[in-house]
Write a structure and sequence with these properties.
Layout (H helix, E strand, L loop, with lengths): L15 E7 L5 H10 L3 E4 H7 L6 H10 L12 H8 L3 H24 L6 E5 L14 E6 L2 H10 L4 H9 L4 H5 L4 E4 L4 H16 L2
Parallel strand pairs: 1-3, 1-4, 2-3, 4-5
């Protein structure tokens, strides 16, 4: 198999670590799914984030202590809508939530990444890679981008009004901040077929053995 000169060298004794990030609505999760089809093991930060605030967890107790019992459902689990309404409207409150949860999420995520066998590709699908200054933890950082109109349209399909979508986009790192840490940028304003071709090309050039 021929390789580009840019092929990322596989490290000895552990999996090759890829940080995959992009703003909300960029299609990052779709790229993760395509990478899985090529053989990567995917660790999804959002899944880890849900797991660390399960009922009875240290994470949920800490969040309730900070934000109050109004963020709980009647069954005692986290009411994500109630918490989101607080943190997406207040930068300081959002920063406090991240201060509580990011260390817990990171510890669990890295345990899962470290469990991927040596010689394989472990992809960490993480929206807050830039905010968490995680770029140096990876062998390769991949950023997914899409134009604003496409992102707002995708978020509308998730039930977000345009002003809600814009607030969430504004709460994250900018495109320029993500580009500054990227080894690879994948554009995703076109068709799924275009995206699949771009991911396949990156896999061949940067990740294939």
């Amino acid at each position: 198999m021929s390789h580009s000169a840019l092929t990322t060298r596989r490290p000895d004794g552990r999996a090759l670590r890829v940080g995959l990030t992009g703003g909300i609505g960029s299609g990052k999760s779709t790229v993760a799914g395509l990478l899985a089809e090529h053989g990567a093991t995917i660790v999804v930060a959002d899944d880890v984030a849900r797991d660390v605030v399960e009922p009875g967890s240290q994470g949920l107790a800490a969040v309730v202590a900070e934000f109050g019992e109004g963020i709980l459902t009647p069954e005692g689990s986290l009411d994500r809508s109630a918490l989101g309404a607080i943190v997406f409207a207040d930068e300081l409150r959002r920063a406090r939530l991240e201060e509580i949860l990011l260390p817990l999420i990171a510890a669990e995520a890295w345990a899962r990444i470290d469990a991927v066998p040596a010689g394989q590709v472990a992809v960490y699908d993480v929206p807050l890679l830039v905010e968490g200054q995680m770029q140096d933890m990876f062998d390769l950082v991949v950023v997914v981008e899409a134009d604003l109109e496409a992102r707002i349209g995708r978020l509308a399909e998730r039930g977000l009004e345009p002003e809600q979508a814009m607030a969430r986009i504004a709460s994250q790192a900018t495109d320029a901040e993500r580009r500054a840490v990227a080894d690879v940028i994948i554009a995703n304003s076109g068709s799924l077929e275009d995206l699949a071709r771009a991911v396949a090309r990156m896999w061949q050039e940067r990740l294939a053995e």
